[in-house]
Amino acid sequence: MRIYEGMFVLDDARWNENPEAVMREVRGLLEKSQAKIFVCEKWDDRKLAYPIKHRNRGIYVLARFTAPFDALRTIERDCQLNETVLRVLITRDEESERLDKLGEFPPKPGEPIAPPPPPPPRAVVPELPPEDDRSQGPAGKEGEPDAE
Running DSSP on this structure, what letter comes out for residue 93? Predict the structure, then answer.
């Protein structure tokens, strides 16, 4: 099975009432579709760029899990019908799949999922000497004398 990453934007009012129940609800949405959850944790609490379902703030929850491909539609549909989930985005986590093939996934508790990739090397551009404008005529061609 493939490894997926799901970002859930949740209703902050429900979160503030009972965060544990909301996390159980998100986990339940995934487990109902036979998903095996590796990580499911609060990522951030932010002001939304625009109101979603009359809410201006949202709780972001990040989950990494495996599930059958057919289950993704079910998960997304269940999230649309759920009043706590404002938005959901599920993507394939290719980096975790690569680590899984190497036997390094899932990580031990407390370890980051994957280290950030190193920045690409910067290309060094050699400096050119300044051009000598005296070698060019008014037409911009080299070697021609100035026509006066």
Answer: -
Domains of the chain, CATH where assigned: 3-101 (3.30.70.60)
Express the helix, strand and coil content of the chain in percent, nearest 5 each: 30, 30, 40
B/e letters for 31-41, b = 16+ CB within 10 Å, e = fewer, are eebebebbebe
Distance CA 84, CA 52 (A): 12
22's tokens: 């909301």
pLDDT digits (tens, 9 = 90+) for 118-137: 677 777 777 777 776 555 55
Closest CA to 57 of 92, 118, 12, 100: 12
- Taking alpha carbons only, the member of 28, 19, 18, 35 closest to residue 70 is 35
So what's the pLDDT on residue 49? Answer: 92
pLDDT digits (tens, 9 = 90+) for 80-118: 999 999 999 999 888 877 877 877 776 655 555 555 566
pTM, two decimal places: 0.68
Do residues 138 and 147 lie in contact, with contact meaning Cβ atoms separated by under 8 Å?
yes
